[in-house]
């Protein structure tokens, strides 16, 4: 077992292996932004308090500032950009745009990853469960409502593509404008 | 001058060797939810980060009869979705639901939450109330098991011996008790509790028995409020009893004043959370 | 028929933001870049006896160490985009680096540029500063006492003082049936934008300093040029999409530091603050101490308001005078009161800088006057809505400066709609919980102070393929400040939004549009864009008129074409039309300027007449659940109703209200910035608590559209107004639930419970 100040790591970032030498105290966030150039991962606090650096690490949504880069050797990391081929993420992205869930956009990549993770684990969450699901991600601009609307809309669209939609149930969950949008999209408008 | 180094022991003995060799300079890296903020805030200047996150045998929930053993590397998220805990150890399960936030729960480990020894550690009051025991190992001292009440020494300090690693927690399941955990924070997520309480009891002929009450954030360590337990024991469950016990609890806690709240408010919370927990446990 | 106006068209920037493609300030790197770091004061008040930098300078990999003596022009008048001097009463000192003394904890003393951030930090640690600590002055009451040391050597501790003298309050109070009095305190608030302050600067081949920075005010290029003694034309701001501003990126943040370091090293330099650095040292919302006295008749007519306002202006006055002025002219709220007396003071202390924050003085006084209204309603036994409706400002009434407000006022309707939307109170879930309803109404200006003579410019160019370019130097904070210009141009010119390319925030190449502050961009740059679009539209219609043989009055613009209203078969596509215009030598571009109304600078401290172009009015109604045992508060309902004039994009407008409302919710309830002897004790998001998704309800928005605003199509501004009125709505609801009057924010569970316990004591005694 080696004791090292500089640690050689090879981390798969969005499908591509990135080899680098990291310092012992570096976080996965440091590595992602400075070495892997994954600038879609944001640094809002670097202390685990804001969620802007959320990524999928080893299959789970985590705050990348709370993972040691050295620990991540041999692991798989996906940021927003690494999830964009996924239809569920695409639904979320479209819904965030449609519903006005994006203001300054700085929380958005982390928020999308957390929302994606939430819907992976629970494809049919209540609004309360959605709020819980993003409760580790701060947003200072939106007041969260339109983000929840967007997650609802994406979930609804996704359930529809699964062929298990119950439109009345969906309508119950959606709020105001999101409901109007869902009706439009569900009825073939988009 | 900052000097951090890193190592990743391949097995437990290797981990114990390095912990033994480096003593106080060694810092255990598992979920890192406390460690990394400490590093970034320069609270730690010179240390060896010992990555134990992938050590074999320290992760998972095992049931043997009416006892559960939880490996110290088990994440809070794993505990929070465990049907066994939900049914068999609801106090701990409840504490895991409100722990941090979903992203932190995916990383934070049970061992880390306890080993960090924050007075506000959410999992401590349930484990105290369940009278869990802690299994540890060190190179020189070998394995030992002791009651969790003996773990905490002060804010951020444990009674672990040099080089000692928490392996697992053991506690009884399906006690058939009335129980509830309540946490009071200034937010409903990512909150450090101002106070938390875990209460369990039985009712015999309408009187409370076998009362266990543990508090978080109301003293230098999480602790059992034994005098308040006595005050409740043998009494009927009603508002008058709760009122008396609350007064007792307010005298028994030793809270501090900090940026989050004053000690006098925390004292009030000791009583209020006791009443809330009792009502929730018996509803 | 409108093409884009009134429609919730997704923002142009949302599309790149959801892909993670937006290049925020810290996401940008330049080859050969160095990293900057700021050495900051460890004392809130001290003399600097010695400053030794040699060790740091000799550290390998360190390229520059800069202290005050290296700054060509270290002390200048703080400007915020205004081109005229408005006098000492309104202007403070901006000092780049501390020289002989430090006035606040965290004040910048030296700058370092090095090869890595770690090295830069190490170099900062190697700079030796010898301090002689001074006794700090930490609260404005002390600072106002005669004979107290001056916080700033060249400025009196009372940095500004304003007065309102309307009618005769003494006489009015003497005849009032009831008088309520109260003392109110509002705390610091941090903007808590998720993007910390950041930028990258480099020097061009011809010696121009380029600063790519997250800033609400690209016009600061002039100040930075003055710091370096360079011509204004030699400093260029390249603004970024901003990761939240709320007023906190209105003052200069990293820009002067970047410029100095890049100028000295001739290397690109990046500087990004840590979160702790941001929380500890950037400007905050002003704490206010407010004494209020309100007199009314038995039937609920307010006859007099008297207020004494003291704001903690911190250690540099920054925008404190202006914030104070806003508070002063808002002191009586959206009510018609014949007799108003206000004395207001901005007072310097050895505490963090206080400056602009969404609402800009309006939320502070709003908390006080709406608490007074609630007291009055209890005292008189008049329903809170009814009492307000008897007093709300109406068209033709005068504000407390005596200015006759001759525009329609929809506040009565707004308050009524919000209040009625709450409906009856539900039954409490358990005996420990009490339910309360509360109302808060308010006003907030949009557009800058009229004596600042505000202007904005915008440029539109049509392309031969029917696409278009807009150039407008508007910083975009995420509120759709840039996007809405595209919607306006699309509406006027029949353009497809996705074919408009928007260029913003280049201080050299985009026409200067002024600050993204003061709820002014839709009003100012929207109008400038509308003006430019209408000139182009006229050219298009005139050309089409000739081509189609139809009079201009009979033509209308539709998506992608111009056609005759009476003979719709007569039309011409946008592309052939633009090509014909080009061939015939018509100019396909227009740059227009919009000027706000101009007034003269107040001659003395008594403020009279018009101060702002216009106001936005609105109200919040909330439902709270208070736990009597813990003081815990849950807020199941928040209803907001604002007269927005015209919602050019209702989704964006709702977003402003939802976000502003929740920011106000945090101000009222959870955001508790503790400060001790000038040092902030809550320098992280684990201590300074902004609301999470589980702490807040779905905020319900009702939009009124009076179409009476000064903005395009009758729009009013909505950026700042939603920050106003929610705090008192919440505390009034707490009173309604449990009878505890919260007079100092935030309304923590601790304050509520302690209030309840005092009641119990009183009843018991």
Descriptors for this entry?
heterotrimer, B: 283 residues, alpha+beta, Uridine Diphospho-n-acetylenolpyruvylglucosamine Reductase, domain 2, Uridine Diphospho-n-acetylenolpyruvylglucosamine Reductase, domain 3, Enolase-like, domain 1, 3 domains, five-stranded antiparallel β-sheet, four-stranded antiparallel β-sheet, globular, C: 765 residues, Aldehyde Oxidoreductase, domain 3, Aldehyde Oxidoreductase, domain 4, seven-stranded mixed β-sheet, five-stranded mixed β-sheet
Can I get a quick summary?
By secondary structure, chain A is an alpha+beta fold.
Structure description:
The complex is a heterotrimer of chains A (190), B (283) and C (765). Chain A has 190 residues and is an alpha+beta fold. Chain A folds into 2 domains: 6-79, Beta-grasp domain (Ubiquitin-like (UB roll), Roll); 84-189, DNA polymerase, domain 1 (Orthogonal Bundle). Chain A is 43% helix and 14% strand. Chain A has helices at residues 28-35, 87-99, 108-121, 127-133, 145-162, 167-173, 176-189, and strands at residues 6-13, 16-23, 54-57, 60-63, 76-78. Chain A has a 5-stranded mixed beta sheet with strand order 2-1-5-3-4, with helices on both faces. The radius of gyration of chain A is 18 Å and the shape is elongated. Chain A starts with 5 loop residues before the first strand and ends with a helix. Chain B is of the alpha+beta class and 283 residues long. Chain B has helices spanning 12-22, 35-40, 76-80, 83-88, 90-97, 102-105, 110-115, 124-129, 226-232, 239-252, 263-282, and strands spanning 3-7, 26-29, 46-51, 61-64, 67-71, 133-138, 142-147, 152-154, 157-158, 165-172, 178-184, 195-204, 207-216, 223-224. In chain B, strands 4-5-10-6-7 form a 5-stranded antiparallel beta sheet. In chain B, β2 (26-29), α2 and β3 (46-51) form a beta-alpha-beta unit. The model of chain B has no long low-confidence stretch (mean pLDDT 97). Chain C has 18 helices and 30 strands. In chain C, the strands form 8 sheets. In chain C, strands 3-7-1-14-11-12-13 form a 7-stranded mixed beta sheet, with helices on both faces. In chain C, α13 packs parallel to α14 (521-548) and α14 crosses α15. Chain C is globular and about 90 Å long. Chains in contact: A-B, A-C, B-C. The A-B interface holds A 1-5, 7, 23-25, 27, 46-49, 51, 54, 60-63, 65-68, 70-71, 73, 114, 117-118, 132-133, 135-137 and B 2-10, 14, 18, 29, 31-33, 35-37, 39-41, 48-49, 51, 53, 77, 100-104, 106-107, 188-190.
